[in-house]
Write a structure and sequence with these properties.
The protein is of the alpha/beta class. It folds into two domains: about 60 residues, no CATH class; about 280 residues, Aminopeptidase. The protein is about 35% helix and about 15% strand. Strand 9, helix 9 and strand 10 form a beta-alpha-beta unit. Helix 6 crosses helix 11, helix 7 runs parallel beside helix 10 and helix 9 packs across helix 11. The protein is globular, with a radius of gyration of 20 Å. The structure holds ligand BES and zinc ion. The site of zinc ion (ZN) has 4 residues, from loops.
Length: about 375
């Protein structure tokens, strides 16, 4: 058991002597002077203050805050996964595409952006996660087998998991298929004071996967592999929520077969203004190559627009947390990195700048991804 903060002096002393925490006494994300361990590239770490983390982010340096996950022997898992070489379920899955509703995404995003900020340390950030929990729970109510549960953190905003158990659940063949988005937003000037509607980053991904979840559940979807929808807290704090979840999954030896992150799914203006075709941006760096190849096939079959390859850099979103413990993960964004939304992390990341038709394409990709992998034999021949 790890203690994120040193609550009792005795515990701190024994944890430190056991090598669990460093000599840095205070590590709480709530204290500006707290010392946090950040990783800015593979094998490159440094201790900086919580306040300096914000400076690092403002300067455009990407990092994971690994303070709570820096075991001397990190827990990793090697899942045996074989991805399908072809699209196999389009005929059964494609009728569902017409049920994905732009109106639902509009209503949900209007609600989600009405919270002043969804900063993970804020009370409105906590309120927004409660709203999301209630919304997901209401969708899942038609099927008693679906479990919706918050994943609690040392800060007030919770992460959220919705699990659709597969027929394979509890067997060695099960390969959990995960779709993720992050629910928190941030205003980089002064996160605890200024507003952050976070319409694109990542309200768009949140409502994209929410609408895919609703479409599948209302169709009576019964997968072979277990399917999970995740909404992470504290991505903007250095992938904190997703690291907590995936390190817990690795510890519990849960066989995640594939994880797809949807972070920023709605901004197309720069692409269109520069005369380029509207496309889905398939990230090619720091992702699982075979899973990414499979995702390109899903885009070609299920979406009405093409994909374009692009790069995002180290630890750019929550798929990096899945990859860190050994799970195959991938990331699809609204455009090339260069043409992505320039208004994120500010009060100007608003709904009026977004295309819901584009979000629909991301939802179609998500539905195809889930459907194809839910019925594939991902465990391969060796199991
Ligand atoms: N959605 C962004 C990542 C992003 C930005 C992707 C621009 C594509 C284009 C994400 O929420 C974010 O802000 N990530 C942080 C890194 C995180 C680990 C602190 C970033 O980019 O600074
Ligand atoms: Zn962001």
């Amino acid at each position: 058991m790890r203690f994120p903060t040193c609550i009792v002096a005795l515990l701190c002393a024994s944890a430190a002597s056991a090598g669990l925490v460093s000599e840095h006494s205070s590590q709480s994300v709530f204290e500006p002077n707290a010392q946090r361990l950040v990783q800015t590239a593979e094998g490159i770490t440094q201790w900086i203050s919580e306040a300096d983390k914000l400076q690092l982010k403002r300067s455009g340096t990407r990092f994971m805050d690994i303070t709570e996950f820096a075991e001397e022997e990190p827990i990793t898992i090697d899942v045996n996964v074989t991805f399908p070489s072809n699209i196999s379920f389009y005929d059964v899955a494609s009728p569902l595409l017409a049920n994905i509703s732009i109106e639902n995404m509009k209503t949900n995003l209007a609600n989600f952006t009405s919270f002043y900020t969804r900063y993970y340390k804020s009370t409105t950030g906590a309120d927004s996660s409660t709203w999301l929990f209630n919304t997901v729970k209401a969708i899942a109510a038609v099927d008693k087998s679906i479990r919706v549960f918050p994943f609690h953190h040392p800060w007030p905003q919770t992460s959220l998991i919705a699990r659709i158990p597969g027929i394979n659940s509890g067997t060695p063949e099960d390969r959990v298929v995960v779709v993720g988005a992050h629910q928190d937003s941030i205003n980089l000037i002064f996160p605890s004071f200024f507003g952050a509607p976070g319409a694109d980053d990542d309200g768009s991904g949140t409502v994209t996967i929410l609408e895919t979840f609703r479409t599948l559940v209302s169709s009576g979807f019964k997968p072979n592999n277990t399917v999970e929808f995740h909404w992470y807290s504290a991505e903007e704090g250095g992938l904190l929520g997703s690291q907590a979840i995936f390190s817990e999954y690795a510890k519990r030896r849960i066989n995640v077969g594939a994880m797809l992150q949807q972070d920023m799914t709605g901004f197309v203006k720069k692409t269109i203004d520069s005369g380029k075709p509207e496309s889905l941006g398939v990230i090619t760096d720091f992702v699982h190559p075979e899973l990414t190849e499979f995702i390109k096939k899903v885009v070609s079959a299920y979406a009405s627009i093409p994909y374009v390859e692009t790069e995002c850099g180290y630890a750019c979103s929550d798929h990096a947390s899945a990859a860190k413990v050994g799970y195959p993960s991938a990331f699809v964004i609204e455009s090339t990195f260069k043409d992505s939304n320039p208004f994120i992390h500010s009060t100007r990341d608003t709904i009026d700048r977004l295309s819901f038709e584009h979000m629909l394409e991301h939802a179609k990709l998500t539905l195809g991804f889930v459907y194809e992998l839910a019925f594939a034999n991902l465990a391969g021949e060796e199991e």
